[in-house]
Amino acid sequence: MSYDSASASRAEGGRRSGRAQRLTVLSGPSGVGKSTVVRELRAEHPEVWLSVSATTRAPRPGETDGVEYHFTDDAGFDAMIAAGELLEWAQFAGNRYGTPRAPVEERLRGGRPVLLEIDLQGARQVRETMPEALQVFLAPPSWEELVRRLTGRGTEPPEVVQRRLDTARVELAAEKEFDVTLVNTSVDEVRERLLALIGVRGDAAPGAPA
């Protein structure tokens, strides 16, 4: 990834700080806008490092190992699990995805803020493997709005839509497990509050743990 000189300077400043950072986990139901918030946040603050997952899925055209994902086979993924090299992992659509532990810990020790954008299952695993992490839940403004987002494309059969809605209900019910909830009424507002929680800018948002 290429940065402009100002962004590179900010990133380098974060690495030189020498102050250990706390991992931030962002989770929430499908369709709530996690990827959009993370994309906007990193466009403004590339010094916030987004973990690159390992996967057994084959690379798609244009994907590069170590950029979109760390690509491996089933044997390699099994070896990472056995060696305790993953903070969390899950299976989806016949493939496995996981967060390598070493790159996360290395950047945290170096003073660089690290963000994980993962599902509920992954967030629960990180709570076990790295309990000091700050767990942030991104919630929709309302259930009706989430339904609109999940069904808005109109390209999926009814049974698939229903599975997505059932999963979203389970994910929303887990909100109380998280340290902080941010309601996604505005991407700009959520981005700024998340940056404050991470510690990149300003003070922690109201309600954030010390």
Main sheet record: 5 strands, parallel
Task: For the record, give the distance between the C-alpha atoms at the N and C termini, rounded to a whole number.
Answer: 33 Å
Please write the CATH class name.
Answer: Alpha Beta
Report the order of strands and helices.
HEHEEEHEEHEHEHHEH
Q: What is the fold-level CATH name, i.e. the topology?
A: Rossmann fold
Instruction: Give the helix proportion (percent range).
Output: 40-55%
Topology, number of strands: 9
* Poorly predicted parts: 1-17, 202-210
Provide the gyration radius in Å. 17 Å
Percentage of residues in DSSP E strands: 15-25%
Notes on the protein architecture:
By secondary structure, the chain is α/β, with parallel strands linked by helices. It has a single domain (5-198), classed as Rossmann fold. Helices cover 42% and strands 18% of the residues. Helix 2 packs across helix 8 (187-198). It is globular. Mean pLDDT is 86; it is low at 1-17 and 202-210. Residues 1-11 have a biased composition (Low complexity). Essential for recycling GMP and indirectly, cGMP.
